[in-house]
From TrEMBL:
Pfam families: Methyltransf_25. This is Carboxy-S-adenosyl-L-methionine synthase. PANTHER family: CARBOXY-S-ADENOSYL-L-METHIONINE SYNTHASE, TRANS-ACONITATE 2-METHYLTRANSFERASE-RELATED. SUPFAM superfamilies: S-adenosyl-L-methionine-dependent methyltransferases (SSF53335). Its EC number is 2.1.3.-. It comes from Candidatus Marinarcus aquaticus. S-adenosyl-L-methionine binds at residues 35, 60-62, 84-85, 110-111, 125, 192. GO terms for biological process: tRNA wobble uridine modification. Residues 56-151 form the Methyltransferase domain.
Length: 235
């Protein structure tokens, strides 16, 4: 379905409800620059680390697109686990996984409360930015502790610049991108307002520092387009 969520005036902050879930795949592709390329890189780099029976978690798996694509491109038997707190998202994820014949265990709940155990790979695409800063570092520490030695954490985030001028220019560039995707000025403004104080991005440097503080031996940016970035961290 086509994303038309913000064609009408908003009445609440952004949430991953049934309305958003029904158009989420289209929303991602039109709202996140080079989303498919970021997903492709996530999968290609992940494949270098995975062996038979490795456990893979996707935190905030939404409609399970990344886990499904990973399964399609991997010749190993993997334990795939998708976690999300949105029932509407998981309902669509289950239907998609069934349609593609991919075995995924889905868990509905708060990722702070769900045990992550013996993971070789943990994925988090545009999820940390929705976690309050007070709890974000704790979650990254939990991710580190849950990974096997040599395990990897691959995550994508919207980022900000510490330079005010460049940050403003980045926002303007992203605005132009959304216009090219068919979103109206009204829709763009409505979504920005709905996300206010819900999506709280870090800078690229802050994300790396958070990863280093958790104990990861290495963190690198795999891909960046203006204010969107994909990182890989190795335990």
């Amino acid at each position: 379905m086509i994303d038309k969520v913000f064609e009408k005036s908003i009445t609440k902050q952004f949430e991953f409800d049934e309305e958003v879930a029904s158009v989420f795949d289209d929303m991602l592709n039109r709202s996140v620059p080079y989303y498919k390329e970021m997903q492709r890189l996530t999968i290609n780099f992940a494949l270098n680390f995975l062996e038979n029976n490795d456990k893979v978690y996707d935190l905030g798996c939404s409609t399970a697109s990344t886990l499904i694509e990973l399964a399609k491109h991997c010749d190993k038997e993997l334990q795939l686990i998708g976690i999300d707190n949105s029932n509407a998202m998981l309902n669509r994820a289950k239907n998609k996984a069934k349609a593609f014949g991919v075995a995924i265990e889905f868990i509905e709940g708060d990722i702070h409360d769900i045990a992550l155990e013996d993971a070789k790979l943990i994925i988090s695409n545009y999820t940390l930015q929705f976690i309050r800063p007070l709890h974000r570092e704790k979650l990254v520490q939990k991710i580190y502790d849950s990974l096997e030695s040599g395990g990897v954490f691959i995550f994508s985030e919207k980022v900000i610049s510490s330079n005010k001028t460049l940050n403003k220019q980045s926002i303007d560039e992203y605005y132009k991108f959304k216009k090219t995707q068919g979103y109206s000025e009204f829709e763009i403004a409505q979504k920005r307002e709905a996300l206010e104080n819900v999506l709280i991005p870090y800078s690229e440097e802050e994300n790396r520092q958070m990863i280093e503080d958790a104990g990861f031996s290495h963190c690198e940016t795999l891909f960046k387009w203006v204010n969107f970035a994909t990182f890989i961290a190795i335990k």
